[in-house]
Write a structure and sequence with these properties.
With 170 residues, the chain is mainly alpha-helical. The chain is built from 7 helices and no strands. It starts with a helix and ends in a 7-residue tail after the last helix.
Length: 170
């Protein structure tokens, strides 16, 4: 059973997160070790599975990776982003590192606005493909667009972590 089936959800990208959260709490009550036989390892595993399923499906980057794994298999052959995008990301990383190192809050705010705008542009560009996927279109073109978006999301995730002075969790 995949994570979507676990919560009784369709395999779509644009999930209703409130509904997901409600399903998570229902499953949590059903599988919580405090409410079940303490010797039942299956129930404990079910609780751990429930927590992991919620963690993955509630995060857009992890959800997209999970969907791609379901559609393409676990050994994703991730293409490299185009050189213009990659160059832009590298330049932004350098500027962010410099601004963070110098504690330049004005520059950090400006860079965050730049990253926000670039992210919004990418999100707007992919949205029609995500809607097509959510309506059952599993064509090669749609899946490829989703893969390209996933690659870009990983870069944006790193930029945002850098802006927030956090370690990259992926």
């Amino acid at each position: 059973m995949d994570y979507f089936e676990h919560f009784g959800l369709a395999c779509i990208f644009n999930l209703d997160l409130d509904h997901l959260r409600k399903q998570y709490y229902i499953k949590s009550r059903e599988s919580h070790p405090d409410h079940l036989d303490k010797d039942n390892a299956v129930n404990h595993l079910s609780s751990a599975y429930n927590n992991e399923a919620f963690r993955v499906l509630s995060n857009p980057l992890l959800r997209l990776k999970y969907i791609l794994n379901l559609k393409l298999g676990p050994d994703l052959n991730e293409p490299k982003p185009n050189t213009l995008f990659l160059s832009e990301m590298m330049d932004l990383h350098e500027m962010i590192d410099k601004a963070v190192d110098n504690n330049n809050s004005k520059e950090i705010i400006s860079l965050k606005e730049t990253v926000d705008q670039l992210y919004l542009n990418e999100k707007n560009e992919i949205e029609k493909y995500l809607v097509q996927f959510d309506h059952g279109d599993n064509s090669k073109d749609v899946i490829q667009k989703m893969m390209d978006y996933y690659i870009k999301l990983k870069y944006f995730d790193r930029l945002y972590n850098n802006l927030n002075n956090k370690e990259n969790e992926l």
